[in-house]
Design a protein that fits this description.
The protein is mainly alpha-helical. Helix content is about 70%, strand content about 0%. It has helices at about 1-20, 25-50, 70-95, 100-110, 110-135, 140-145, 160-170, 175-190, 195-200, 205-215, 220-230, 235-245, 245-255, 260-275, 280-285, 290-300, 315-325, 345, 350-370, 375-380, 385-395, 395-415, 420-425, 430-445, 450-460, 470-480, 485-500, 505-515, 520-525, 530-550, 560-565, 570-575, 580-605, and strands at about 55, 65. A two-stranded antiparallel sheet has the order 1-2. Helix 7 (about 160-170) runs antiparallel to helix 8 and helix 19 packs parallel to helix 22 (about 395-415).
């Protein structure tokens, strides 16, 4: 910025020289000279401020903070001042000595009104620079606190001047005032998208990230910074700005090293970013954020996993070795013990704080795994699945729900990815068994549809991992076909459809099990008009059963139900797959019934 101010100083000198040569409007030119002299002094004061970047030691810690100069509002003011000085120079030059004709022409085309306009421009420039000197004055900040005044340049947008003031303070050495500024920015961003946009455009993210990173001696500063960033992280473009400023490694480092109250705030920031931008999911994964999150969840959770072979990726001993390696790793700060902190501190922390931390970390895991096969795989490569199963079993409310939703995302990814399915959900895997047991337990909880639905979805996603003899998995889902809650019954039909569909190698055996447990009768009730979604998925399942099994309880009534559905043009339009399924199922049932009738006739004869 020194170069830009140097140009302003040169302009000021040229104006003073032109004033000395003026022959007309001398009084006005003299006033111009005074204002320009004032501006020239202020230019030099701002230059001193911008160049006096110092290292200040925080008296409450051993940390050094490198203060910096916030340039954005100053550059904008420089641009406006430059225009004002150029106009001033043009006007004053018209008043210089010349021949009589030129002197007459100057008086004709120049009037006192022109000078009044210039005086206003120069006064505005003085006001803007006075604002800079007052806001950027460290001594004034220490004695009077954060100054919220309105510079002329922002007179039509007070929020802009506030944002400039708060961001300027974030660049200064005073920790207490930086905390206050971060909190004020967080306040401005609550439910106000325009304010969020202004803060990002005016360069608010880099100093917030720096406060988060360098505030290790002050939990309050880290919480203030992460809260402000969380409010900003509601839009993909703003999240990309955080990532472009190397926010992911900073956030993960703080999550590793900080105390629990800070981790709560940082985990919430991770959730916001992962929820609103898939790119954030991958950035965090590259920084190995999954392990510390799982480590927090596993604290105080007793994982009674049988002692496996050392080479297995889910073994406890291999995890311990991995954690020890991470402590000396280049890209990770390390996991201390079973968590990221001093064990003594964790054990003596308030139980409510522990619960809140686990809740926020479980939400972060959920958002990181959402529609992400790679992150789902990373969770299963730790002891994450077993930990999630234990929490689903022991905990309630939001923590239980977050863990259940994480499991649902992992099973959904496993359904679409055969390698993940085979690696994470082996039949003899303790983690897989534990997850299945808890899902089945939740399916039985008819008083909690919000838990039943994701549990049923998860079982459906795992349909291709169960053997034919594991009928205990199918029975509770079949029972939910008759659930009074239509959403639960519909999800049960969708899940059972994955057991009975042709893509499932054991579809015939599973279809027989569904019929054996009385699935056809409640399924026929699901076909009643009134809910197209329930009717559609009920028909799909019924078609699979009719195609896979020749006879069974209730199948004799299936043909008339399918024939009635075939006459519904709405259903056929909404689900193209039914156009072939229903005729094939009707044909299969007709062939079977004809065969039975012929056989009975032969016996009669």
């Amino acid at each position: 910025m020194e170069e830009e101010f140097s140009y302003l100083i040169v302009l000021a000198d040229r104006i003073r020289d032109a004033v000395k040569e003026s022959e007309s409007f001398k009084l006005e030119c003299s006033q111009v000279s005074k204002q320009v002299n004032h501006l020239s002094l202020m230019f030099r004061s701002v230059i001193r401020l911008s160049t006096n970047t110092t290292v200040t030691t925080n008296t409450s810690s051993t940390n050094h903070y490198q203060s910096s100069f916030y340039e954005r509002p100053v550059r904008r003011i420089i641009s406006e001042v430059s225009k004002a000085l150029e106009k001033t120079l043009t006007l004053v030059r018209k008043c210089r000595q010349g021949n009589c004709f030129f002197h007459f022409l100057t008086i004709t085309i120049t009037s006192a009104a022109d000078f009044r306009k210039i005086f206003i421009l120069l006064d505005t420039s003085i006001g803007d620079l006075e604002w800079v000197l007052s806001v950027y004055d460290v001594n004034s900040l220490e004695s009077n606190g954060i100054l919220l005044s309105l510079p002329p340049i922002a007179c039509n947008d007070p929020i802009l001047s506030w944002v400039w003031s708060f961001i300027a303070v974030l660049h200064m050495p005073s920790l207490s005032h930086r905390i206050e500024a971060a909190n004020e920015l967080a306040s401005l961003t609550k439910d106000n998208h325009r304010n969020k946009k202004i803060i990002v455009e005016e360069g608010g993210i880099p100093p917030l990230l720096r406060l988060l990173k360098q505030g290790s001696s002050s939990p309050e500063s880290q919480i203030a910074a992460s809260n402000a960033l969380s409010y900003l992280a509601t839009d993909r473009q703003r999240i990309r700005t955080i990532l472009s400023e190397h926010g992911a490694p900073i956030i993960v480092q703080v999550l590793h090293e900080s105390i629990m109250s800070v981790q709560i705030s940082v985990a919430n920031l991770v959730s916001r970013m992962a929820k609103n931008d898939p790119a954030a999911q991958e950035e965090f994964a590259r920084e190995n954020i999954i392990r510390p999150l799982v480590s927090v969840l596993s604290f105080d959770t007793f994982l009674d996993e049988p002692k496996p072979q050392p080479q297995r990726p889910t073994s406890f001993h291999s995890l311990v070795r991995i954690n020890k390696d991470l402590q000396g790793g280049k890209s990770n700060v390390g996991i201390r013990g079973s968590s990221m902190h001093n064990k003594y501190e964790r054990e003596n922390e308030n139980p409510d704080v522990k619960l809140e931390l686990k809740t926020k970390c479980s939400e972060a895991l959920w958002m990181l795994s959402k529609e992400s096969t790679s992150n789902s795989r990373r969770i299963t490569e730790t002891k994450g699945l077993l930990c999630l199963a234990k929490i689903i079993e022991k905990e309630r409310d939001e923590l239980q729900m977050n863990c259940l939703m994480t499991v649902m995302e992992i099973t959904s990814a496993a359904e679409a990815n055969a390698d993940l399915r085979r690696a994470a959900f082996k039949t003899n895997s303790p983690a897989s068994k534990a997850v299945t047991e808890q899902l089945l337990a939740l399916v039985h909880q008819e008083t909690s549809p919000s838990l039943q639905i994701p549990a049923i979805k998860s079982i459906g996603s795992l349909a291709r991992t169960f053997h034919a003899r594991e009928t205990r998995v199918i029975k509770p889902v079949v029972l939910q076909l008759g659930n009074k809650n239509l959403d639960v019954a519909t999800e049960a039909a969708i899940a059972l459809g994955k057991f009975a569909c042709p893509e499932n190698f054991l579809c015939v055996e599973h279809s027989k099990t569904i019929i054996e447990y009385g699935g056809v009768t409640p399924l026929l009730r699901l076909l009643r008009p009134g809910n197209d979604r329930a009717q559609m998925h009920g028909l799909i399942l019924l078609c699979y059963l009719a195609l896979n099994v020749d006879s069974g309880e209730g199948l004799e009534r299936a043909r008339s139900a399918l024939e009635g559905a075939a006459r519904s043009s709405v259903l056929m339009q909404n689900c193209p797959s039914l156009r072939n399924l229903i005729p094939n199922a009707i044909s299969h049932l007709a062939v079977y019934e004809t065969g039975v009738y012929t056989l009975m006739q032969s016996y009669t004869i």
